[in-house]
Write a structure and sequence with these properties.
The protein has 7 helices and 41 strands. It is mostly beta strands and about 650 residues long. The protein folds into 6 domains: about 260 residues, no CATH class; about 45 residues; about 80 residues, Carboxypeptidase-like, regulatory domain (Immunoglobulin-like, Sandwich), CATH 2.60.40.1120; about 100 residues, Sandwich (Immunoglobulin-like), CATH 2.60.40; about 80 residues, Sandwich (Immunoglobulin-like), CATH 2.60.40.1120; about 40 residues, no CATH class. The protein is globular, with a radius of gyration of 29 Å.
Length: about 650
């Protein structure tokens, strides 16, 4: 039995990362007219693996699994045999003997196939898949049901990398990037575990966004029944890496011998990029295998990458003891043979700088690939590109003491890709300072975000070089100090600094270069920022009968100043909003089936608990027309608040009963 399968929707071909044009993959809608959503076909021949709890719509799914045979249920086979007995008896004992042999053969095949779904070979204790639907929260799990990237991911009980998992939804942990993007992920999650001794734990996991190689992105906290605690680090490129595979990753495989890529699938977005999404089965040894485990915690390290967990299974066996012949599914990248010479020069002298890192993002019609090259002693990096047509090449040179410098090359029929290019590095500067509270005490753990903004009238610059700086986030240490390196000097007029801490009101510096004194303090790393204590509101959203309203959307801010906070109620109707400035604050609520609510209250630095009742709404519909009574069509068309459907020129909303 082959351990590997490549699945494709009937009538379609499975796009490979090596295909010349992945856009041939067929329809991208969720339903394929005239085709059953339940059926799949196997490109390698044989019978496709069954994912009975949720079929993959138009599945462009690749996996290699121990249960790569359809379990044939015994009951239908028995019914089939019994239903033909009378017909067979009329045809003599030879026919009866023949069907007996066939039935035994089919039953044996059924039992073998059912056994193939069991990840544990005979004689080995089975793994314990954790089932934890009560752990999920909407902010982390909503996209599992609706987002294009997840709609083809496996569901229910599955076996990957020789280990059985229960796939119920997503756990996503907080990171610096999730904070920057205002994704409300949790910092830690507690998982209930059947009390027992275990040799290891298996995670079906990856990360959102990337991090530095071997950087700890999270840790497993082992809590034992005797009260002792142990911690196991989860390392980027050591145990796993980002969910979205980037072509030409280095290294090609993660380092741990207990980790491998076991699921590979494609979404509409990944097809456009010629890439794929993936999950790793990462196995971690129990530091105290003789102690009984009470429960586990997944704790974020607040790095650039967010840990994403699809399944967790406990194993009585130590790491590496469970047999697994599943190959690593990391795809092979195409070979590039064309060369582009990139010379990196100092801005003051124009002399070449050796040892500089040069990243090159190459775009073709069907792939986006990024590789990092190093300039030799002559200051020249040999950048590889595809032999065929190239749409664009984006080069970023990085050298200590200089700002990251970008050159973008557009390639077309009239402007071919040159054989060589020069990059003159831009001047960079470090920024830093110290953050204290109202009493002058240093504040640790403040997220300091240095960002670039554009307002449409930036002065032109000479040459093809431009800053590659967008934003970066650091945290203050115990002394309240922070520092960001290599900020482009010529962009300081369009660089701001934002300070965030859950116990203090957010503050910011809008434009560094507009205040020469402040610019000097920041560049000399002696800038002082004092943060004001913040208010915290814990609320509950209820219906007219006092019952909690889940998934209500909440926006919080000061009137006539723009919204600054967003939240949603959980299953018990509760929500929390932190870092609010004391004073009059507007709370706005919206939930399907209820009329919108806007309420202004006075918040203070002491934590407040407030109940917000929603009124049942009645549906109001309207139609927007032009002077000729024709519906006005525009991109901002209204959408029905319950169905999510909309018609150009029509609007609808829930209003309170009068």
């Amino acid at each position: 039995m082959s351990p590997g399968w490549r699945l494709a929707a009937p009538g379609s071909s499975l796009p490979s990362l090596r295909d010349e044009d992945p856009r041939h993959a067929g329809p991208q809608s969720q339903d394929i007219p005239g085709k059953s959503r339940e059926s799949t076909s196997c490109r390698r021949g044989g019978t496709a693996p069954a994912f009975p709890h949720r079929p993959f719509p138009e599945a462009a799914f690749l996996s290699r699994s121990m249960n790569a045979r359809v379990p044939i249920p015994a009951q239908p086979i028995q019914v089939l045999a019994r239903g033909t007995v009378s017909w067979l008896l009329r045809r003599g004992w030879m026919a009866l003997l023949l069907i007996g042999i066939v039935r035994v053969s089919l039953m044996t095949h059924a039992q073998e196939a059912l056994g193939a779904a069991d990840a544990s070979p005979p004689g080995l204790p089975p793994v314990v898949p954790l089932h934890y639907p009560n752990v999920f929260v909407p902010a982390e799990n909503d996209e599992f049901e609706i987002a294009d990237n997840w709609i083809r991911a496996p569901r229910g009980p599955q076996v990957f990398g020789g280990v059985q998992f229960e796939i119920d939804g997503l756990i996503q942990l907080r990171s610096r990037t999730s904070l920057e993007r205002k994704r409300d992920f949790r910092e830690h999650v507690t998982l209930a575990v059947p009390t027992n001794t275990y040799g290891s734990v298996h995670l079906l996991a990856a990360t959102s966004w990337a991090s530095e190689a071997n950087r700890q992105v999270a840790e497993i906290v082992w809590r034992y029944t005797d009260g002792s605690v142990q911690r196991t680090p989860i390392l980027y490129t050591g145990n796993l890496r980002r969910l979205w595979r980037v072509p030409f990753e280095e290294p090609h495989h993660v380092h741990s011998r207990f980790s491998r890529c076991v699921i590979l699938w494609q979404s509409i977005a990944s097809l456009k990029e010629g890439s794929a999404l993936r999950m790793y089965r990462a196995t971690f040894p129990n530091p105290e295998p003789t102690r009984q485990v009470a429960f586990l915690q997944l704790q974020s390290s607040i790095e650039s990458a967010s840990l994403v967990v699809l399944g967790v299974s406990m194993d009585p066996l130590a790491a590496g003891q469970r047999p697994d012949s599943t190959p690593d599914l990391e795809p092979e990248d195409p070979k590039w043979t064309s060369h582009l010479g990139v010379a990196v020069l100092a801005p003051e002298t124009g002399k070449a700088i050796g040892g500089t890192a040069v990243s090159a993002e190459v775009r073709t019609a069907n792939i986006v690939g990024e590789r990092v090259h190093t300039a030799d002693r002559r200051g020249v990096a040999d950048v590889l590109t595809p032999t065929g047509a190239v749409d664009s090449v984006t080069l970023i040179a990085r050298a200590k003491g200089y700002a990251d410098t970008l050159v973008h090359l557009i390639v077309n029929a009239t402007k071919p890709l040159p054989a060589s290019v020069k990059i003159r590095l831009l001047e960079g500067t470090d920024l830093g300072g110290r953050i204290t509270d109202a009493a002058g005490r240093p504040i640790s753990g403040v997220n300091v975000e240095v960002y670039w903004f554009w307002i449409g009238d930036d002065p032109p610059h000479d040459g093809p070089e431009e800053p590659a700086f967008a934003r970066t986030t650091v945290q203050t240490g115990a002394d309240g100090r922070w520092q960001v390196e290599a900020v482009p000097v010529r962009n300081l007029l369009r660089v701001g600094v934002r300070f965030r801490h859950s116990d203090h009101v957010e503050d910011k510096v809008y434009s560094i270069a507009e205040n020469p004194t402040m610019e000097s303090e920041l560049r000399e790393k002696r800038h002082q920022k004092q943060l004001v204590g913040a208010a915290k509101v814990v609320g509950i959203v209820v219906d007219p009968n006092g019952q909690p309203v889940a998934d209500a959307r909440i926006r919080v801010g000061v009137r006539n100043s723009g919204w600054s906070h967003q939240a949603s109620s959980d299953g018990s109707g509760r929500f929390t909003v932190e870092s609010l400035a004391a004073g009059r604050t507007l709370f706005a609520f919206n939930s399907a089936g209820f009329s919108p609510l806007a309420k202004e209250i006075t918040v203070n630095p002491r934590s407040q608990k407030i109940q917000f009742p929603l009124e049942q709404g009645s549906l109001f519909r309207g139609r927007v027309v032009d002077p000729d009574n024709q519906p006005i069509r525009c991109p901002g068309r209204a959408v029905h608040p319950e169905t999510g459907q909309g018609t150009p020129g029509q609007a609808s909303s829930h209003l309170a009963h009068s």
